[in-house]
Amino acid sequence: MRREKRASGQGRREFLKLAGLGAVVGTVAAVAGERPAEAAGSAGAPASGYRLTEHVKKAYELARF
Amino acid sequence: MVDSTVAERLLGEEEELRAQVYGLLARLLAAPPDAALLGFLAGLGERETEFGRALLALAERARAAEVEAVADEYHELFVGVGRGELLPYASYYLTGFLYERPLAELRSDLRQLGVARAEGNKEPEDHIASLCEVMAGLVRGAFGDGSLELQRRFFMRHLEPWAGRFFQDLERAQAARFYAPVGSLGRLFVDIERAAFAMAG
Fold this sequence. Notes:
The complex is a heterodimer of chains A (65) and B (201).
Chain A: H1 2-18, H2 27-30, E1 50-51, H3 54-62
Chain B: H1 2-30, H2 35-41, H3 50-64, H4 67-79, H5 90-95, H6 101-113, E1 115-116, H7 128-140, H8 148-158, H9 163-172, H10 179-199
Helix pairs in contact in B: 1-7, 3-10, 7-8, 9-10
């Protein structure tokens, strides 16, 4: 069971590698200025308080209908 | 024990790349790129994979693009006068109307994850950019437990049913020049994600 799981994890990893996602390396720095907000400003509330980022908010403002 | 630790760390690299792709799509779909981002995009891509070639196409457009022209294009595609050429909302793609059941279901799932709209933001959460942003956060474990299962559930419920169609529409949109290869990139990535989740067992 455990072994199978690991094997399938490897298959997935191999697949992702072959799919060429590596071509985006560095993107994180490039979009850093507008990087998605991190979770929960306050410690102790890890799964709460996430806010969709300002740029998304801006898009919503623009896309007013 | 050592094996699985190594495996997890390697897995982490691929997962980080996924988060970066989601982050890039979120950024480009939420607002037009600035000069710095265009400059960065200009250097991306490789010939070995379809995904890499889509990035090459995007790089080529980025090199030829001017910030103002891309901003106009973004406006034409997603904002428009009255409405843009495309309506990048899950509810619209799945029901033909905005603010329908898919949005209600999304809101319920986001509440459980502890994700909310920014204060004062009254627009719906089912915009493609915010869904990509949520996926990036789920992959990084910024919220949720970071598990693949949670990512898969969110993806299958809120992106898989329509995002591929949206990205295809973006590829073919009349106003799309810079954004056409963004559409290709998104369409290919949705296919990659679908296949990869199926492999996770």
